[in-house]
Amino acid sequence: MQNRITRLFNISLPIIQAGMIWASGWRLASAVSNAGGLGLIGSGSMYPEVLREHIRQCKAATDKPFGVNVPLLYPDIEQHIQIIIAEKVPIVFTSAGNPKTWTARLKENGITVVHVVSSSKFALKAQEAGCDAIVAEGFEAGGHNGREETTTMVLIPAVCNAVHIPVIAAGGIATGRQMMASMVLGAEGVQIGSRFVASNEASSHIHFKEAVVKAGEGDTQLSLKQLTPVRLLKNDFFEQAQKAEAAGATVETLKALLGKGRAKKGMFEGDLANGELEIGQVCALINHIQPAATIVEEIWNEFIHAMKQPLK
Questions:
Q1: 245-270 burial by CB neighbour count: b if 16+ within 10 A, else e?
Q2: How far apart are CA 205 and CA 167, in angstroms?
Q3: What is the pLDDT of residue 227?
Q4: Are 275 and 265 in contact (CB under 8 A)?
Q5: What are the residue ranges in the chain where pLDDT is below 70?
């Protein structure tokens, strides 16, 4: 399949693996790229030298294009940008910040830039900043979310109507049929996170992966809205956060409750009670831990099959 997204990234399939913290290292990114999609290294949980090592390992593991996801609020962002440029990473996805800050510098160095947004307003700002494409991420997504709480079904056509650059759909997508729905709404590719968390190559802890495949409908919820809204799998920490917010906790109290390393504790170290477990609503449809290449193949085959089916 060829469209603006596959041509932009020089990939075979318009399937992009999200750069999730504590899950998206070089093994996952290279596996997705080797399968024909676009793999992303999630730099948000990496010290600068760790990021450099993952980029070099990814280069050794694939001759296909790959990228790095960079949360713009990361404290070592300047060092991350310098490393990405020095290592000649071809593609960067930015999120959680103003795309104007770094887009021009990245593009001056020949890097394709994509920004993640949660509204048409921010999509227009990303386009004005010179981004090559946009990820429109709906409220169903895992991890940090937009305050607008706009669902993917509403967000995708709204963003596609607002901008002229290519749009990638994200949030609540794990199957080929969901991919087809996104494309019908105007997207030219999909970005998938939760399903790739449940892959063999994801660096997330096996206990977290097992919790993802066991989860059902209603097992995730948006939390910590006073700070930055984040969708979490319900556990003891989630319940503590909910009670604190319901009791009118201040931002400072919530920050103290969150502390440092809460996401690492849950997703990387496997503490299912006290850790922050970021995952999307679509975990209810994920039933197996699989190789990343198998996930890409299954999504693509289901997409092709769905495209050929008559309306009922």
A1: beeebeeeebeebbeeebbbbbbbbb
A2: 32
A3: 76
A4: yes
A5: 311-312
pTM value surpassing 0.90: yes
Element (H, E) at 66: strand 66-71
CATH fold for domain 4-203+286-308: TIM Barrel (3.20.20)
3 state SS of 160: helix
**Domain ranges for the chain:** 4-203+286-308, 206-282
Q: Which residue has the tokens 């999609």?
A: 37
**Is residue 158 exposed (0-12), middle (13-18) or buried (19+ Cβ within 10 Å)?**
middle
Alpha helix positions (H), the chain: 4-9, 26-34, 48-61, 77-86, 103-108, 120-128, 152-162, 176-184, 194-197, 206-214, 236-246, 251-258, 262-263, 292-308
- Bridge partners of residue 133, in order along the sequence: 114
